[in-house]
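User: Could you go from structure to sequence for me? I need the amino acid at each position, not a summary. Structure tokens:
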């Protein structure tokens, strides 16, 4: 059975066990920041709950297919109407929950951004969670479970999703979702702190990625960690066209440190060091067109940020 998430092994083991033993809870709360795969996991659970095949979810039957395309009559997604989920939406959900399934043997209700329910909406939901209909599953998705009433949380099996480790498997998943071999999946996942959804969203915004990289390099420079600077730059060994942008973002990062010094905020650098690094980067920038070796360019950048101090 193919599992839908990378990482979060404990959650995947729990979900797999509940599916295998037909012991899915009537209410599951999936918590985690946007991009970690809450909705992906919710629809996977919905497929398993409504699938009639021996191996659940089979991912091949009509029920699984209809959930995949968003048209299963027994799987309902509730999203905010405007700023939040209104009490009328929850009352409608409650009425639907007691109806006979149209196609499967049960019904699934996925409440996205559950934290946007106000107190009235949550109390309306509480009534059906306290006395749930037979063979109905409620899946609540939220960024912060503390925004929900304790009585709601107490009636759910809570699962908190975390960012994936910055390892190749997570990067492979990013590359798979992007379907673009020209994108640096490792760099994107690093910039997104292990959040696969955020990494995919960052794919079209190189400035954010390079700005993050520049901040990391400056942190290594403060520790005189030449090796880590070279490792950070090495990911661009086949992307010469991005090197000018990297130097530009490094100069921006140095400029921000200068601003900190100007208003007497803490900085790991002296004024003299900031100015010297900035001027040396300008010299490297001016010779890029004449330097055929990126390895040498990277060494010069690392040197100008560390060995001179």
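Assistant: Here is the amino acid at each position, in order:
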């Amino acid at each position: 059975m193919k599992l839908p998430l990378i990482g979060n092994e404990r959650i995947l083991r729990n979900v797999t066990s509940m599916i295998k033993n037909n012991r899915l809870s009537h209410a599951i709360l999936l918590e985690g920041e946007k991009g970690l795969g809450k909705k992906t996991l919710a629809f996977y659970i919905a497929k398993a709950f409504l699938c009639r095949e021996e191996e659940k979810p089979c991912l091949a039957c009509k029920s699984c297919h209809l959930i995949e395309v968003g048209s299963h009559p027994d799987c309902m997604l509730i999203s905010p109407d405007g700023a939040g989920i209104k009490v009328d939406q929850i009352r409608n959900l409650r009425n639907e929950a007691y109806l006979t399934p149209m196609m499967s043997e049960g019904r699934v209700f996925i409440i996205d951004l559950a934290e946007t329910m106000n107190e009235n909406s949550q109390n309306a939901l509480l009534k059906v969670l306290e006395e749930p209909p037979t063979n109905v599953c409620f899946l609540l998705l939220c960024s912060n479970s503390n925004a929900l009433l304790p009585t709601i949380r107490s009636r759910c099996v809570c699962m908190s999703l975390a960012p994936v480790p910055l390892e190749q498997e997570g990067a492979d998943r990013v590359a798979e979702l992007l379907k673009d071999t020209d994108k640096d999946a490792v760099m994107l996942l690093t910039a997104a702190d292990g959040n696969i959804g955020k990494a995919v969203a960052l794919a079209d915004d190189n400035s954010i990625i390079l700005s993050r990289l520049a901040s990391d390099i400056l942190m290594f420079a403060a520790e005189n960690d030449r090796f880590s600077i070279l490792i950070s730059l090495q990911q661009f060994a086949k992307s010469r066209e991005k090197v000018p942008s990297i130097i530009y973002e490094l100069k921006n990062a140095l400029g921000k440190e200068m601003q900190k010094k100007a208003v007497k905020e803490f900085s790991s650098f002296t004024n003299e060091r900031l100015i010297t690094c900035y001027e040396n980067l300008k010299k490297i920038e001016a010779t890029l067109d004449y330097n055929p070796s990126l390895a040498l360019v990277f060494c010069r950048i690392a040197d100008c940020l560390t060995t001179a101090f």
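One structural detail worth keeping in mind: The mean pLDDT is 86.
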